[in-house]
Write a structure and sequence with these properties.
The protein has three helices and seven strands. By secondary structure, the protein is α+β, with helices and mostly antiparallel strands. The protein has one domain (3-35, 66-136): START domain (Alpha-D-Glucose-1,6-Bisphosphate, Chain A, domain 4), CATH 3.30.530.20. The protein has a seven-stranded antiparallel β-sheet with strand order 1-7-6-5-4-3-2. The longest helix is centred in the C-terminal third of the chain and has 23 residues, at 114-136. The termini are far apart.
């Protein structure tokens, strides 16, 4: 199956440590993402499960952590209906820009179809949710 790679970025009004912690700390991650279900062991080779609600249904997303380098990088596998069961890889890069952070999400190994391409909108929406959530905490 042909695969694709997506990259989305956003500058967020929070420090790299704050943005990193919003992704790695289970309570913070659940709070801003609005996950209906969350099981996570945020260590290298630790597993995660995230249940995201949409249109009355919970969509499962799961994988394992590959790299955790606070506060610069998180890399994890990502499997969902949208990946057609393929194990894709999500890399999050946190680049300090003074008291702001440029967060870049690179998602590789997605199926080159509509479901795979829809991840770009999903990640952009997640970055918007995170930015709004962190701005409200300042």
């Amino acid at each position: 199956m042909k695969t694709l790679e997506l990259t989305v970025s956003r500058t967020i009004d929070a420090t790299a440590e704050e943005v990193f912690d919003a992704w790695i700390d289970p309570a913070k991650f659940r709070e801003w993402l609005g996950a209906q279900r969350l099981i996570t062991d945020p260590v290298v080779d630790g597993l995660f499960y995230v249940g995201l609600g949409h249109e009355g249904r919970v969509y499962p997303h799961y994988g394992r952590f590959l790299r955790i380098e606070r506060p610069r990088r998180i890399e994890k596998t990502w499997v969902s209906e949208g990946t057609r069961g393929l194990e894709s890889v999500v890399s999050l890069g946190f680049e300090a820009r003074g008291d702001r952070t440029e967060l870049t999400i690179r998602h590789t190994g997605l199926p080159d179809d509509e479901d795979g391409r829809n991840h770009e909108e999903g990640w952009s929406s997640a970055l918007e949710q995170l930015a709004t959530h962190l701005a409200g905490r300042r």
